Amino acid sequence: MRFALLDGGGGRGALRCGVSFANRAIVTDDMAGNFWHSDVSCDPEPPLGSILYLREVPEVGGDTLFSSMYAAYEALSGPMKRLLEELTAVHSGEHIYRARYPNNEVKDRSDYGYRRAGRFPISEHPVLRTHPETKRTALYVNAGFTTRIKELEPDASQAILDFLFKHIQRPEFCCRLRWRKNSIAFWDNRCVQHYAVFDYFPAVRSGDRVTVKGDKPFYKTNLRSRKHNAAAE
Asked: Distances from the Cα of 16 to the Cαs of 110, 121, 144, in angstroms?
């Protein structure tokens, strides 16, 4: 799992990152992220990673769960892996952001190809994703942004997505981060999903968040893995 924790409980930690930052936002006590997701997967070029620093944490609750999409993929059966190789998922921000920003007009996203004001990002990505650095395969659908599978009829699409959304929650794929004051977490959105547990109301969890610019997801068939899957059946 591409996950690292820098704990600043007793001093100052240093985080080095040789990539450009896409944006910076304040994390408050709202319900953002209270579901399994990979950050902003509805963008054509979703964030490579996210860095979160918390200055204020609740006495109880507010943990973040992480799930390895490498492990989720590798635990699938051979026939399921071969099915998913051919599929494309639609990722949409409309149902998430429209309620939060009802009057928003998306006029400044021309770099991503958004031409129509008022439209929140919708993108298509392969259901399986090749990590550009490790070359490993990861499952790349999430309950937050993935709305359907392009090649399937609606009922079949929903059945496959429901299975995969449940599959990624298996405990053996997951770890749980219990935040402390001044903790920093850096995770790789290309192979990890996370769930920010909102169980601390009315306490406050606040800090700074940096989103690291990413690239367009792709899938490159691993022929060696395909032969291994077939032999294992």
From this structure: 30, 30, 29
